[in-house]
Amino acid sequence: MNLHxxxxxxxxxxxxxxAVTDVYISEGRIAAVxxxxxxxxxxxxxxxxxxxxxxxxxxxxxxxxxxxQDQKATIASETMAAAAGGVTTLCCPPDTRPVIDTPAVxxxxxxxxxxxxxxxxxxxGALTQELKGEVLAGMxxxxxxxxxxxxxxxxxxxxxxxxxxxxxxxxxxxxxxxLHAEDAWLAGQGCMHEGPISTRLGLPGIPxxxxxxxxxxxxxxxxxxxxxxxxCRLSSARAAAQIAEARQHGLPVTADVSVQHLFYxxxxxxxxxxxxxxxxxxxxxxxxxxxxxxxxxxxxSAVCSDHEPQDQDAQRQPFAATEPGISALExxxxxxxxxxxxxxxxxxxxxxxxxxxxxxxLTVPAGTLTPGVAADVCVFDPQETWVVGEDTLQSAGKNTPxxxxxxxxxxxxxxxxxxxxxxxxxxxxxxxxxxxxx
Amino acid sequence: xxxxxxxQINAHGRLQHFLTIEGLPRELLIEILDRAEGFAGIxxxxxxxxxxxxxxxxxxxxxxxxxxxxTTFELAAKRLSADVLNLNIxxxxxxxxxxxxxxxxxxxxxxxxxxxxRHHLSGAAHFIARNVAPHISVINxxxxxxxxxxxxxxxxxxIRRHKRDFMRLKVAIVGDVLHSRVARSEIHAxxxxxxxxxxxVGPRTLIPAGVExxxxxxxxxxxxxLKNVDVIVMLRLQTERMRGALLPSAAEYFRLYGLTxxxxxxxxxxxxxxxxxxxxxxxxxxxxxxxxxxSVILQQVSHGIAVRMAVMAMTAGSQAG
Lengths: 438, 321
Hints:
The complex is a heterodimer.
Chain A: E1 3-12, E2 17-26, E3 29-33, E4 44-47, E5 52-55, E6 57-59, H1 75-84, E7 87-92, H2 103-116, E8 120-126, H3 139-144, E9 149-151, H4 160-172, E10 176-179, H5 184-187, E11 192-193, H6 196-201, E12 205-206, H7 208-225, E13 229-231, H8 237-248, E14 253-258, H9 285-296, E15 302-304, H10 312-315, H11 332-341, H12 347-352, H13 356-362, E16 377-387, E17 406-416, E18 419-423
Parallel strand pairs in A: 1-4, 1-5, 6-7, 7-8, 8-9, 9-10, 10-13, 11-12, 13-14, 14-15
Antiparallel strand pairs in A: 1-2, 2-3, 5-16, 16-17, 17-18
Helix pairs in contact in A: 1-2, 4-7, 7-8, 8-9
Chain B: H1 26-39, E1 57-62, H2 68-79, E2 83-88, H3 100-109, E3 114-119, H4 124-131, E4 137-143, H5 149-163, E5 170-174, H6 181-192, E6 197-201, E7 217-219, H7 222-226, E8 231-234, H8 250-257, H9 261-264, E9 272-274, H10 287-290, H11 297-320
Parallel strand pairs in B: 1-2, 1-3, 3-4, 5-6, 5-8, 6-7, 8-9
Helix pairs in contact in B: 1-5, 1-11, 2-11, 5-6, 5-11
């Protein structure tokens, strides 16, 4: 079926496109942007006037909770949330139950995602068996099963020898290693950033050094092994600076940050508010500003949702007993638009950090509107406001600090391989205003 | 910074719950001390009871073992003529897998009026106060490392008995500030009551990050820390702290930070020595000091009853009004 998306502001950073123009889709693929291909006849025309058309978003980290924790969420529920958030490709970290350390688990996730049919799901395989940091996982088999990289998720590899060998072996398999830099000893029993607020609340703190010590150790081993590495979810300004320096020295490293870490600080926890309980923790205002600066300078090239849906029982506890995480797929886009309004990034740069850049990190052919690629497209209204509520979120996890708050920016439709996988149901109550052009 | 103000104070400005000293106005703290003054005589009477809370049911909800605090809360409640229920959750429902919230729902169903809560997690009292039915008052009997507000008030009461004017005092809090809920509440209480100089004294391993932002000065040398102070608050050193990387041994701790008669001489000649108990003789305090004329440790215990009566009467009273 041929589709013609008309008159939208098309932002496709990979191809340097930012213009009010048309997108033509044929046989589930992008046929052209701008001028119609010869003989193109649309079966359906979508009027995207006053809307923004981007490649489908690519999320470096979204936990689907399946297999193993389907009381919290399922692949079906969370890919539905992804579609509602404009996300067409998402990457599932290996900390499922069982862990993604055998091809069978990868196949199960791929099958269920395909059956749900709302988003492309790619997996990171485990770096070590059961993420225990002791024995290497069968990385080659995992790669053959379709894993786009390997990771030990948030379980830190305490044994430095194992980490070194894991990096060497991953390089042998030509796999990118996704590392969460946290020193397990320094993090200890901590549940928030160590600083004046953790002191005041008497909550055990995670010092900045838990991250910087791990980054330093890992950078030295990356230098030795030459393993292509991606640092996941930086939380401190100093770690961002360490990675910037490593990149200057030509190390094959990239880094991302969760969108929440670009907004929140440990201040939010002052009343024991467990909606802000995340790992790595929200740190100081200086850290948040440092992460923002690193993003603007391109030293951190990708932003992700770090989606982590929780059930109510996991949240209704005193702070330290709650499970960390924010249900974030559907509020990712409004928060990115807030960064644009804050003048941190212009719109194309913001879109790049959520589309082509993470796609390159994952080495998947997504995140662009290049003719010939699968037509994964996100169409959103940058002006429309909506209230984040238990009824408006598709995700099974309602754990977000934005619950009950109004946000600006709403996905109107999401296409996956040219198929409509999401369409906003409630029309805007306000007449749309003129779109600001940057 | 965002603080919890409304949770503790009701629409009429009265104390609804007593969870932390932080954010409470000075007048309220003074009112607690004054009310306690009024209750202090009751313990000496032949009939040690007033009928203020007759017909009310108070539950001592202890998720962590305690003797002194639980006993004084129980005595305080009984002297106010309330019915008291002691629940040691550690040895009951929690072990059977019941969640904190379910435990609360069950107690609410039994029509209790007040919970006195002790829990090993910081913020547990706030969590409970946020989740109980509106007619129930929650008093924090100690949550994790966060707060122990009645202990801080009984210390303030003891200080006022001996010193009168908070505005001219120098106070040293010595020991394991990192793990101490008493220290945190004490700092808030003393600062709110106008004490101009509060020093925390201890090794770097036991002083938490950024504690200066609570308005105290930090001292790692006990001789400097005790110089010319009016009040010395010694903190209890848990023996398990000596197993990790925080301290090498009890003997070395005593040598560096133990309160000895010689060190006591550095303080003002009329300085008083306090300790929340139970004390470790020869670890944080020398027996000669603990049992000496400047020690007010046992007075603290008896003041604890009057102060807890005051807090119970005030929170229960907020429900009536």
